[in-house]
């Protein structure tokens, strides 16, 4: 809990400070007088005067602001009229407003580049058993397949280094409504062949956390080796031990941990909750010897389904690779990843507006805090990647053409540039009210989604 809270506070602090710092630095460069730089809203908790600017920390840390000298907000002395924001040229006002999102984009590029330099341990793109009847199964993927490269058209191929890279390619393919070509071999690199995943058959509204399961990919290949067993559980009672490698169940070969888990889960269907299923014959390898054991999984209810359980950890850790790059390559990859995430985020917003994507994709502070804590516990590289993703999302969100957001102000300046006159005060007031309503609706929906995820309803 403490790690989650600290990671969330650091995330908010870094992103808010960087965003507002962008506004602040460009305003100063344009000669605008900055009255206050605030992290947070509401009652001021801490304040410090540096030159003509007051730096403050306020009670509500879900944002920040830079207050500039402006004749629309109060009287300005004749000597400082040229330093008022409203009296600066149009291009300078637009640059000051755009500098906040731009700073978040730059931060994301640098964070992604830092991850590339540091290196991160990620699972090798060797796949576990696909779900029966899934897209992956129909495409011909099998347990132990090593995905070497992907292509959008079957001609230009991009090599893969890790499983997360494959997941990202799948997400992009579904987002763009196209197939994904795969070049695969066995785990030792032999027998290379090409397959096509029909990701174009999935609706874009299915672009969520369950995407991989819909495609049929459960995760990295894990050997069917047992870990810790709970004392008194079905596995321990049958005589299974840590390190046993499962060869077959009821005469059917077991190819990987995913297939074994599915076999155990399926054994509970049609059973009675709390009771044991009919005996299953397991053949396991232990210290070079092959043993036959009878095992009766216990039937439990999970999410309205009856499933089998043996109360044992199943699966050896997947093979990990350290993925790292040189300075220039890391910077280029950071810029490319920032662009790809930006396009995907913007497309998702657009699809939510048109009903092509589920509104469940919208997340609030509770989900962000949870992911911040999870990534922080996984290590520095994972947390920096998370921070970069949120920074991109914040930049894209702020560029949406909604009053109250930077994008709304940029739309005002676009109108002024095209028409030669500013948006009237009356129209600004009406649009501001509409913007407040839209933002409240978005915040309510995001918090509702957060609570639904917390309660396991999504």
UniProtKB/TrEMBL annotation:
User: Does the record bear Cell inner membrane in its keywords?
Assistant: no
Which SMART domains does the protein's record reference?
Answer: PDZ (SM00228)
Which UniProt keyword terms apply here? Hydrolase, Membrane, Metal-binding, Metalloprotease, Protease, Transmembrane, Transmembrane helix, Zinc
| Cofactor requirements of the protein | Zn(2+)
Q: Name one Pfam family in it.
A: PDZ_6
Coiled coil feature spans:
none
Q: Which residue spans traverse the membrane?
A: 95-120, 383-405, 431-448
Q: Which GO terms describe its biological process?
A: proteolysis
Q: In which compartments does the protein localize?
A: Membrane
Q: Which GO terms describe its cellular component?
A: membrane
Record-listed E.C. numbers: 3.4.24.-
SUPFAM superfamilies, sorted = PDZ domain-like
Q: Which residues form the PDZ domain?
A: 199-262
> What membrane topology does the annotation report for this chain?
Multi-pass membrane protein
The text of the family note is:
Belongs to the peptidase M50B family.
List, alphabetically, the PANTHER family matched: MEMBRANE METALLOPROTEASE ARASP2, CHLOROPLASTIC-RELATED (PTHR42837:SF2), REGULATOR OF SIGMA-E PROTEASE RSEP (PTHR42837)
Protein name in UniProt: Zinc metalloprotease
